[in-house]
Amino acid sequence: MKNNVKRIYICKKNEFDHQSKALREEIKNSLGIETTYIKTYRRYDVDIKDESLEKTLASVFYEAPVEEVYYEDYKKLEASFENPIGIQYQAGQFDNREEGLIQTLALFTDEKLRAKVTEVYDIGGVSQADLEKIKTFLINPVDSQEVDVYKETELREDAKENHENLVYDGFNKLDKDGLIKFVEEKSLAMSPEDLEVLQDYFKSENRDPNETEVAIIDTYWSDHCRHTTFNTELDVDFNVVTELDKEIKRVFDDYLKMREELGVKKPVTLMGLGTILSKELRKNGKLDDLEVSSEINACSVKIKAKVEVDGKLEDRDYLLMFKNETHNHPTEIEPVGGASTCLGGAIRDPLSGRSYVYQAMRVTGAGDPFTPIEKTLEGKLPQKKIVTEAALGYSSYGNQVGVATGLVDELYHPGYVAKRMETGAVMAACPLENVKRIEPTEGDVVILLGGRTGRDGIGGATGSSKSHNVSSIETESAQVQKGNAPEERKIQRLFRNPEAAKLIKKCNDFGAGGVSVAIGELADSIEVKLDKVPLKYMGLKPREIAISESQERMAVVIDKNDVDKFMELADKENLEATLVARVTGDNRLKMYYKDELICDMSYDFVNQTGAKRFEEVEVVSEDLPKFLNKKDGLEDLEKYLQDLNITSKKNMIELFDSSVGASTVLQPLGGKKQNTPAQVMAALIPTDDGESRTASVMSYGFNPKLSEESQFLGGYYAVVESIAKLVAAGAPLEGIRLSFQEFYEKMDNKKAWSKPLKSLLGALKASRFFDAPPIGGKDSMSGSFEDINVPPTLISFAVNTADAKNIISPEFKGMGKLGLIRTKRDDIGALDLDMAKENFLSLQKEIEAGNIISAAAITHKGSLPQIFEMAIDNVGFDIKLDDLYSPLYGSFIVEYLEDRDFIEKLGDFTEDEMIVNGEKLDIEKLSKAYLTTMDKIFKPLDSHKLEKIDQAKAPKRSMKSKKPVDEVKVVIPAFPGTNSEYDTARAFERAGAKAEVVIFRNKDDKALQESIEELAEKISKAQILAIPGGFSLGDEPGGSGKFIANVIRSEKVKKAIETLLDDNDGLILGICNGFQALVKTGLLPYGKIKDLEEDDPTLTYNTCSRHIARVVDTVVMSNNSPWLAKLDEGKTYKVPISHGEGRFIASEEAIKEILDKEQVALCYADAPNGSALNVEALMSEDGKILGKMGHSERFVENTFKNIRDMELEDIFTAGVEFFKAD
């Protein structure tokens, strides 16, 4: 190899190589190709010195217990390949594998390292034709490319500064045909009419524009940024044929009257229709909770959050923010990156408002994932690939950044083959006093926070504003960003700090448009220094720097006198912060690259929206949808339970960490076996002191099949469904606020325009009745591919707050009677809204009184399928039901204790039988239909029941420290990727300790060395070291906990840990990622730091080859440890888990030694991950070090309310009391 480049191949030993086995099975099932073998390798090409490689090979590159390494003999391995395929990311794509490797190696050397990671697949027994099919299956050209496996890798960075900024000479002289050609050649989102406006402006400036200026305006005026479609002036023509048409026309006339009463003079637009209700309610004094500001990119309302401090309730002023976001286009062409940055983008909007994002919802739309690959349309990825990889992208980002995903649903409809719908919604909150909304003034500065800028995401805003075509998958790679969740976590932490938040005058996230929009929108006089923007690599042109949408960046306006303080606070959070712009007073957007003026435009021009748009609308007639009335019989129940829009999505849901943050009120799946889906996500409002008693609650409403038949009723019932779900969960009807997500086909004809118009009219009718206004939203109007269109989509997200103690869940408890709260419908398919409101309020009252203990709003699934999923594995029933399957929106299935006039009794609960109208159901067959239909798309869990473990009893271990103290100090290191530091600190503080979170900084060598010294010093003076959960460096390089393990191995930290254990008689706790680090350093099970050898225990990938997030039963095998003193041996505790590498493995000799020394602390009652002995928690021989996969820190009062028999597994109080004198 050239220079110092070393080539290293890593592969799993055959008995642990589940990835290769799973891929071989997938290729057989999806492509029909039989292979004799498949072996997967990760290859590192690293420019590193021999001595550095020797020090790091075993600790960084591979794990001896589960992996094999080929270094000096790699050429021999390559010679043995039969059919190798090498895959690398395209140039310019962020690669967290390379980043993780380089950051970990930096712990050992100050060399300037470069690396390239390649996934290599060796495939046996296939023809050349089949090999090409496999390549197509494995390689997505949007972000990846095939490379020659045998070719040497060059890692030199030859790129230099690039000042090129092409001027479009002659642009101002182009005629209309020339402008049309210009749009096509430059692939602009602007129309030729927009270009005329641009041309007129630059004629007034007496010069032609340059490529950066055109790109900036193309971004600013895109549908994504300026909502040009929604702001198009409409001339609406009705052709009233049916009774439903009359109602649609009547609501439109009401809208016109509202405009008149409010004095609205602007033309009729979709935007005006969507925002009219909030204007009306504000005028009438019914929307005083709305925060109004020019800065906010998310819905923001003022609330009173109840916090209990020392037994007393306090009402605190908070801002509650929520936001929905789509990344339809990016996810369509690159599912992992597109979906992950969908969540990342949704997070950054409320985060830019200084609120802490703590919960997320995911609602997506796809074609049939069972569609055979050979039926995939040209220019499209297979639906199964999109579905599974998008779920991986969204879940991995949320899991890493530490935002709990409270609800996951996917809607299947053939129209979403045109373009996938990838929608995320988030909840956020912060104390009101932390937020200052101050308009920037001349002299203020703009600081860029967070990630560096690369070519990923260039053209994202304009790309999402265009329709997809057959070439998109190969021509739009630059439009897809790659997320870096640990970086976003740092910004979350910084903005949660009141000291930092209060210094910020104004903030904007780097979403669509990058620097040009994020900084350009902060003030109407800005001067940007593009050469100051930190880059991932050299060679970017000014245009690329200006519009790149590289992720995890924020622009903040700071008073020039506060710069040093803000920089200091950012540095403490391991964040890169750079002064890149200043506020001027000349009303110009100026950008410089060093001394060269790159962009110079008037804000009067930039803030326009291009050419005025006008369209005629021909409102298409509608009639009562067939969807609303279903007459199928009981014999059809199995078919319904197998319907992709009804059947269980459990395996997909369990990919998403739902409990991080220790505030989850309802798990996404509840009941005895966690098979009953929740209809809302609910979480406690986060607070840094006291106990939160107020919960936020969010739901969604929408069905594509109903909306396809009637856009009016589709929008109407989207609102009704979202509100009904909130009420059914115990949230009050009053105070509900909405946000809409619109997704429609390309608006290229009069009839197409009527679809969003009718949807919004239906939504207006329902939301106006309930005084539940949409106060935000997001539109995407490019859902067309060739001759296929997405179904008319208006999702209503509904939000309110509630007293956490009032929140209930759908799963039946079997303690009452089973009933129906029915709301009547009229002849056009609409509800009797007065009756609906009366029912909603009655339901709310009975929930608060404790009479209704389970409830679900009836949705598209119909009454009987919903009763089945509320009962499955919980209880049986014997009912009489007249309508089995119709979507009775606005009605409810309830479990109640005492009769009420508005509740129709359907029947009673039984112990183990399900009887409908006198006919007994085949529970086994129906359960299989409901629970296993999606197993071939998303893998189910493994099951390993706990068997009797013959563990010896060691002598009684010390339960009191020889070094008692009055104040127990707990050090909690937060490494890049840690996400459970707050939860862990609060758990110890509740137990009476003083917890200190220590941020590990590694943005440069100086910070890294300082952090090692600081961490070592803190540990040496502490009583407890607690390493919390997370994904250190995104579980790179090549496995979890490696970065932490190598920090622990550093000489200073190693000595500090020895001091903690020996001199301070201290304790160590590792949870999840922390447990992985303890095992990979030898602290568990050996009690000392050592290099791992081939036969040593470790933690590796789950046997089901996927992430697992759920609540599990764990059995206490021993309480012979200071950590376990408060647990009863043999008792079962329920605890949430969230991990992809939680499988404990060990040799027979190691297992025997662990059992002989009584080191198994807790075991899974049923191990979902294949863990040896079902081990969930392990302790050192002296019991002072405990590692566990279960997140004991995440349970607090009013959480996990749909999981029966949850209680605190109180290792924290036990650990603290170890140091208290009797």
How does this structure look, described?
This protein is globular. The strands form eleven sheets. Strands 40-39-41-42-50-49-47-44-45 form a nine-stranded mixed beta sheet, sandwiched between helices. The chain is built from 38 helices and 50 strands. Helix 6 (176-186) crosses helix 7. Residues 462-466 and 471-477 have low confidence and may be disordered. With 1222 residues, it is an alpha+beta fold. The longest helix is centred in the N-terminal third of the chain and has 20 residues, at 243-262. 57% of the residues are buried. The chain is 31% helix and 24% strand. Among the domains are: 5-147, no CATH class; 810-938, Alpha-Beta Complex (Phosphoribosyl-aminoimidazole Synthetase, Chain A, domain 2); 944-1195 and 1203-1218, Rossmann fold, CATH 3.40.50. Residues 442-594 form the PurM-like C-terminal domain.
